[in-house]
Amino acid sequence: MRLTTMLLLCVIMAAGKLTAQSRTLQGTVTDESGAPVTGASVSIKENKRGTTTAADGSFTLSAPAGSKTLVVSYVGKESQEITIGNTASFNVSLKAGGSKNLDEVVVTALGITKERRTLGYATQTVKGDAITDKGDGNLLNALQGKLAGADIVGSGGAAGASTSIILRGISSFTGNQSPIFVVDGIPVSDDVDESTIGLYTNQPANRTADLNVNDIESVNVLQGPAAAALYGSRASHGAIMITTKKGSGQKGVVNITYSSSYMMQKVYGFPELQNKYGQGANGVFSAISTNSFGPAFGSTASLANGLIVAPGNTQYVNGVLYTAGQTIPYKAYPDNIMSYFKTGTVFENNLMINSGDARNNYNIAIGNSRQNGILPNSQFNKTNIAFSASTYFTDKLSVKAGATYFSTVQDGITQGTNGTYSSYANAVRVPRSVDFEYYKNHYTTPTGYNNWFIPNIYNAAIQDSSSGGDNPYFAAYKNPIKSLLTRVLANISMGYDLRKWLNVSYRLGVDAYTEHRKRTIALGSAQVVRSAFTGTPGPTTGGIMEDVFTRNEISGDLIITAKKANVFVQGLNVNVLAGHSINQRKFQQINQTGYGLAVPNYYNITNASNLSLSNEYNSLRRVWGVYGQLSLAYNNYLFLEFTGRQDHSSTLPASKNAYFYPSVSAAFVLSDALKINSDLLSFAKLRASYAKVGEDAPPYALNNIYLSASDGNNVAAYAFPFGSTAGFGAASRLGNKELRPEFTNTLDFGVNLGLFKNKINIDATYYSSKSTDQIVSVAVPGSTGYQSKYANVGELTNKGFEITVTATPVRTKNFSWNISGNFSRNRNKVTYIAPGVTSFAYAGTSFSGLVPTVAVGEPFGIIRGAKWVTNAAGQRLVDSTTGQYANFLLDQTVINPNRDWIAGLTNTFTFKHFSFSFLVDYKKGGQFESFTVGVLRANGSLKVTEDRDQPHILPGVIDVGGGKYRPNNIQISGQSYYATALGSTTGTSASNEFAVFDATTFRVREFSVSYDLPGSLVNTKIFKNIKFTIYGRNLFFYAPNSLIDPELSTQGAATTTTGGLVRGLELISAPSTRNVGASIRVGF
Amino acid sequence: MKIKKIAGLLVLVLFTSCTKSFLEVNNDPNSVTDVPPKTLLPNTLVSMAIANSNELGRAAGLLMQYNANSNSASVAGAYDTWIISGFESQWDNEIYGGTLNNLNIIINKTQAQSPAYAGIAKLQFAYTVSMATDLFGDVPYSQAAAGFDNAGLIKYPQPVFDAQMDIYLGNTTKGIKSLFNLVREGLADISKPSVQRPTVDDLVYGGDMAKWTRFGNSLLLKFALQVSNKAPDTTKNVINDVLAGKPYIDDINGALDFKVPFTAANPNSYYLQDLGGSIPNTQMLSSRFLALERSLNDSLRLSKFYTKPAATFVGAENGSPFTPPPLVTRSTYGSYVLGPTLSGEAPVRLVTAFRNNFILAEAALRFGTTGNANTYFQNGIKASMKSAGLSDADVTAYFAANPAIVNLSGTPANQLMQVLMQKYVASVGNAIESYNDYRRTGIPSLPQPQTTAGDDPNNFPQRYAYPVTEGSSNPNQPNPRPKTSVKVWWAL
To answer: Which of A87, A612, B227, B399 has the least CB density, counted as fewest CB within 10 Å?
Structure first.
């Protein structure tokens, strides 16, 4: 109630006036050509009050008594200090030059703004301009290529699919590797909520996808944990601080911006397919085969090759029934798989209204984005409405508040590798001679059943039987997954100046959402067949699966800041901060599954006759902490900062739940201290920092538990109770009462240089971090009776460097060229696990014989599996009787998903009102296993499998005894070569080393051309300016060592509950897209 | 004033939040930390039945050519072509997790006060371990699922793989208790006074300890025959000892059989695999088993074992690369395996009178143990037929019409073949037993499937492949693992 009252008061005050003992300064900032400079920082040196200039370069600023110096600065310009005196109006002209490093104000932890020059640790800023109109509405995708030290990987082109971000390599064995996301000072969720049957679901979104990039003013990134003391343990993987748009910067002026954009997406990067051979096996046509190892197109039809229907038989081919003796028409449908993808579209509209200066302002943002995905029947629609305001009740009491409502709709189809459940995987498996157009138009039989070339048990009139999954169109249109998320983000903060040098503030924030996800399965689908719960065999039952996720996070921070200039000695400024924080995270997932629908096409859970699988999971965790920061600045060239934080977490053993961690950082502006002021070296700063961060355990990891028992596997699951008899069993995961917090220690050295009058700015960082006592759910051998156990194990190091360079090679009155590049390289290594333990598998994450594993001496994130046995020379051994590879060894490293290095380069050219920019990036190294390629090769669809007329010989050697080998000379058939030897399985376990590819990719990631028409140019006051932009995304990529776009990690940002992020698996993801769009932005 | 109020409120919020109870929220609301033995026992019974009847049994059913695959892309297709791997879930969840670990918990909870529970848990433990070693060869036993030490840590974090010989016969130097002795211990516990006794939680025998005693003695018979190729003296002595007046499961009407019950609401694995689960219709009657049954004039019993949706039984060839017969005509598991309404309400039959009779018939033939082989043989056939649902009149009629089939005749080798052939027929559903007998005796002869693959496409799989997950966390598992064509210790 109180909160609402405050919020209302804010609204009133924002529109009202203030009663300060101050006067108002106003003016205009222009560049050398006289053009207005938008977004220049104007502040008062004495009390740090400030604002930014509006689109026309104007500013208004309230100057309290004691204001003496006005500081005006802008990126790429020389900043100016102007004595205020009695002047009230200022016209400031900024000269080119200046330094980004020198003057830029950046947001650091807790939303505290600091000048970049004072920082002793690495930080990066991306302005809102750089992420809007770039062809992707997901904030993380829009940051691709723009951040040093960030590895951002999407999970494919499905609408709303999640994206993961890792800063400076993985620094924890467990759980979420994601940095903390903070919006206007309030931690928010970037979680990915997986449905109960995660592998066969739609690709869920990561929750920062809810954010509206149009409402983002800037994104500040702290790659390392140096600032984490103030955020607590959740910032141990870095922090991404998002500042939303605020007032216009000018009192009494209302800025209205309306923008609209339209974008199209086309599939790009799907593997190339052959069109010489059609459906069948061993050169013989079969109408029910999922393989394309049939006869070559153009073959003469015969009984032997199956193209003449055998006596006593019938064949159902592309919707036509052929009887004995008839010839089956047989030809390639080159577009059959690609025709499954539609042209995706995104239509977006945004309205922003804001007004006010730095002290009193409000902002309204309304956005709507509607995306129709590349997969049939998929969409991702976002609506958000935001309001924020800040005001000074008195000269001393300030209040800021904001609330945003989000509604996100994500509808899609089942994806993943499982053929029975996955719509998309079945589309990928379509043989080359199947007429997909027919199946698109006839996905149901006249009786309402699923119609597909793979025999369907409900379609006895046409087909015989078996489970082959659904027609992908039937699955898409009749068995969709729909999700509706409602989210509210609200914050309020109050600050009070007890003394001129002493401020107390409190900030309270809430991030709460509920997502309702519903998967329905129509009667007639192969997906829910004769359910275990119907009790009787018989026709398809249909089903409904519902998940409700509720997540709620509350954070509160009390912050007391004191600052004093000229302490002890002249020029020594001291800033002290003390804080207290509480954080509570609550999560609930309830799911309900109903089978046996009585009435067709009625998807209400009350229509289900069997409601056997319902489940509930709750978790609650709390942390409170106290923290402090001491900042010292000497003569504006030497800066020292100490922080310390003590956290208390509910997830650790009660007697040992407190943990302390400190940090220290220093920055030394060499050029100022030594008064170097050459044209060559215009600015030089050295910095160093050390930080330690602690992180607590997952909730409920301390005790051994028992659960109501369930037996069997995914194919045949049995669940207690048995009638009225309960059955319990020990949970497969063991708790640990001795868990300690895990820690990460980081050393960070950096240098900032400004060369040639700051035309070139270089920021380079070397870091080294060590993470210890990792809390992991370690796999234990199944023969112990358990499968995993929580433990503090291991040590992990990350070492690397990051370089960002910005340069302005050309700058004239009408033309400028800006370059912004970044390079980063991280080396990650597991250095220690536990005494006598050299490796362990993540519990519960193994998939098809691929086991995410942590091993000493290896980088984190490797995946182990089976590899063919080789001799000492590394040649694979071939079985002398079969001509196939002989045997395989388990527990071999098959995939290392870590990149060697990543670089991004943005070039921006402006000519008068035109602007042109493009971003290319290069990601070197990293491996992934492509199930898409594996499946397409094993079923004979991939282009390379065209070469099958002649027998093949596997590269390898045959053991002739006595340590001697002869080259393999045993011929095997083309089908055997592609389907068995290189195919989708290794021997009898399922990892496939031949489907592992190097992910090195060069990519033209972004491209945009815009024309900004000022109203003044056409002599109108109806609008201030209109900006037209045409943009493209992912226009081209070159991946020399991969048959598919490597930027597909199916798990995306999804973390398993115990195993953290699994990267490097492309489990039949929807392919990447190439996007082209246009936008118009009108400012009033 | 207002400001002070707000500040006061903030201070209040802060300091109430710092109280100890603020952090006392780590009690898991999703589970419990302890449960009574009576809730564990039903789970162990169901779990051991599922271990026998789920994937492990399905693979054996295809290897033993009761069934043939009708979907070559499914696991049934893999098993049918001798790809015998991928049993991670069976090993982790069904054998060691679901069954052995919970049994050990029961034993630890009840050994002192309520040995009735501990005793039957030991019998179940012995049965389940024998199943594991029979299929996988050397397996963790003496250190498996052994619970925690005093510090609360897993007592044996990486259990050793005990040799199959040591598991069956024991090894004093290595401190390995033989399965025979484990059963004897269990039998002794059963007869002790016990504070708590199982009642309805004993889904199989309803707490009847006399029946559990019969179960225990029947296990001794089974184990004795299992080691007969390597330890014939043990075979003979153990069997004669039981036959000297100890009760075992011998009621040919099946009243004493160890059958784990299932219902349509909690259906058995056969139903879930073939009909109710997510990948149904992957296997059907093998034309080879069909041919055998026809040669035995046994179509009445076969009609209980398998359905006949068309006018005649329709089987498929093992390992066939061709399109299977249409679903509507296929013969698949019938009322004996799936229950009267084919909804999975049939029990999983682990130890039965018919199998005991065949065991005793074989032992009498090979080792001259007590009793008449032909009597045992005929009792075995009768018990199986009755178990399948044939009436007394049907049984009598069959015996009258087929004297050459129901009477042992010819050479000892031929008589042995007759016994094992009937045992094979009777063991529909529990193919693991037939797989054990086949590897022990080479009976019945199994022609190679039309296509084979796996570790060794030329040699019949003699064991199941070790699971990947165990190997990746337990260095005691042999690596590279033995190929599936390598024989286990007791094999012929």
So the answer is: A87
- At A230 the three-state DSSP class reads helix
Residues of B with CB below 8 A from A497's CB?
none
Please enumerate in sequence order all residues whose Cβ is within 8 A of that of A18, keeping only pairs 6 or more positions apart, or say none.
A62, A359, A360, A391, A392, A395
Question: Which phi-psi region, left, alpha or beta, contains residue B127 (left: φ > 0; alpha: ψ -120 to 50)?
Answer: alpha
Query: Model-level pTM?
Result: 0.81
Q: Which helix (H) or strand (E) holds B223?
A: helix B209-226
Q: Could A730 and B321 be called an inter-chain contact, meaning their C-beta atoms sit closer than 8 Å? A: no
Nearest CA in chain B to A284: B322
CA angle A504, A508, A513 (to 5 degrees): 165
Cα A1057 → chain centroid: 17
Write the pLDDT tens digit of every residue in A86-130: 777 888 877 765 444 445 777 777 777 788 888 888 888 888 888
User: In 10 A of CB A635, how many CB atoms?
Assistant: 13
Q: What is the DSSP letter of A976?
A: I
- For residue A110, the 8-state DSSP code is G
> Which residues have CB under 8 Å from B268's CB, separation 6+?
B49, B53, B262, B338, B339, B344, B345, B346, B347, B348
**Across the strands, what pairs with A507?**
A493, A557
- Cα gap A626→A724, rounded to integer Å: 51
Alpha-carbon gap, residue A651 to A1012, rounded angstroms: 54
- Range of lowest pLDDT (A155-159, A570-574, B201-205): A155-159
| Residue to substitute from A459, A619, A784, interface B, most B β-carbons within 10 A | A784
3-state helix, strand, coil in chain A (%, to 5): 10, 50, 40
Residue A893, C-beta contacts closer than 8 angstroms, at least 6 positions apart: A853, A855, A858, A862, A863, A864
- The span from the CA of B147 to the CA of B395, in Å, is 49
Interface predicted TM-score (ipTM) of this complex, two decimals: 0.92
- CA atoms of A201 and A195, how far apart (whole Å): 7
Pairwise CA distance, residues B420 & B361, whole Å: 9
A706: chain B residues, CB-CB within 8 Å: 31-35
pLDDT in tens, A1007-1054: 999 999 988 888 888 888 899 999 999 999 999 999 999 887 766 656
Residue A455: per-residue pLDDT: 61
Write out chain B residues lying below 8 Å of A728, CB-based. 32, 35, 39-40, 43
Interface test with B, best of A783, A890, A939 (most B CBs within 10 A): A783
- Taking an 8 Å cut-off on Cβ atoms, the answer to whether B43 and A711 are in contact is yes
| Separation CA A974–CA A944 (nearest Å) | 11
- Compute the nearest-CA separation of A368 from chain B (Å): 37
Looking at chain A, the whole-number percentage of residues with pLDDT higher than 70 is: 88
Tell me which of A143-157, A707-721, A809-823 is least confident: A707-721
Q: Which of B145, B280, B321 lies nearest to residue A784, judging by beta carbons?
A: B145
CB A33 within 8 A of CB A409: no
Residue with tokens 């802008």: A74
Q: Are A930 and A997 in contact (CB under 8 A)?
A: yes
For residues A216-255, one letter each, b for 16 or more C-beta atoms within 10 angstroms of the residue's C-beta and e for the rest, the string is bbbbbbbbbbbbbbbbbbbbbbbbbbbbbbbbbbbbebeb
Q: Which residues on adjacent β-strands are paired with residue B158?
A: none
CB contacts, 8 Å: A533 with chain B = 265, 276
Length, in residues, of chain B: 492
Rounded mean pLDDT, A810-830: 92
| CB contact at 8 A, A114 and A106 | yes
Three-state DSSP class for residue A408: strand
